[in-house]
């Protein structure tokens, strides 16, 4: 059983890496916003996989892969925030004139971010990183341990990932705890990636807990967007009328999302689970 588990882990790591490379190629061809978002998510999932399987991977190779993947995730973030901000404010404009300059200034930032992304993706040494990924993935089956140790490790990791969620859930609905909500968002995302990886590796169905985590992540992700949009707009030279439009719009959104989060925690509280 242990060998079969780790063989599936090896195949999943290679598959995830090939998907990341496919999306990289698509972004270079089209610069499509959705594809850019998918590439950013794929880079996070691959980094989560490296972290989860790290005890079996070559340390130096893994460290280099994690560093390069983290850089990729970060370089994609700026354009994603601009695109989401454009959509968000356009949907909430009540008058034709409201947010006109905001829209123009945000759109003006997009080409510069796209140049940064294209440069980073073009400079990615695909052949070298392919060799590094194959080397890392191959260790999953070469350094075998018995099945019980595999399962013990995965159980301990799942428990460890849930701890910050358990700690932050009671605090998150408090109005002045934005930092706690940010930390909860990251903790839930990590736990979700854990289940997404474990499902094919252990051949288990975790769709119920994944659906619940997605509900939380959707609300907390939108709350994080509010914070990102605030920071993005803070650097723009806007007339007072549009500054007011931004402030009122973001405050209303944050208030509504806080209510939704509070209700979700009451109705569907997260509890630890990891059936094997």
Main beta sheet? none
The radius of gyration is 21 Å
CATH domain class name: Mainly Alpha
Number of domains: 1
Q: How far apart lie the N and C ends?
A: 13 Å
CATH topology-level name:
CHAD domain
According to CATH, the homologous superfamily is CHAD domain
Q: Give the overall silhouette.
A: flat
% residues in beta strands: under 5%
| Tally of strands | 0
Q: Which range best describes the helical content: under 10%, 10-25%, 25-40%, 40-55%, 55-70% or over 70%? A: over 70%
Number of alpha- plus pi-helical segments: 9
Write the layout of secondary structure elements.
Blueprint: H1 2-30, H2 33-52, H3 59-91, H4 100-123, H5 126-142, H6 147-168, H7 178-202, H8 207-234, H9 240-267
Helix pairs in contact: 1-2, 1-5, 1-7, 2-3, 2-7, 3-4, 3-8, 6-7, 7-8, 8-9
Polypeptide structure, described:
- With 276 residues, the chain is mainly α.
- It has a single domain, classed as CHAD domain (Alpha solenoid).
- It has nine helices and no strands.
- Helix 1 runs antiparallel to helix 2 and helix 2 packs antiparallel against helix 3.
- The longest helix has 33 residues.
- It is flat and about 65 Å long.
- The two termini are 13 Å apart.
Keywords:
CHAD domain, 276 residues, mainly alpha
In short:
The chain is mainly alpha-helical and 276 residues long.
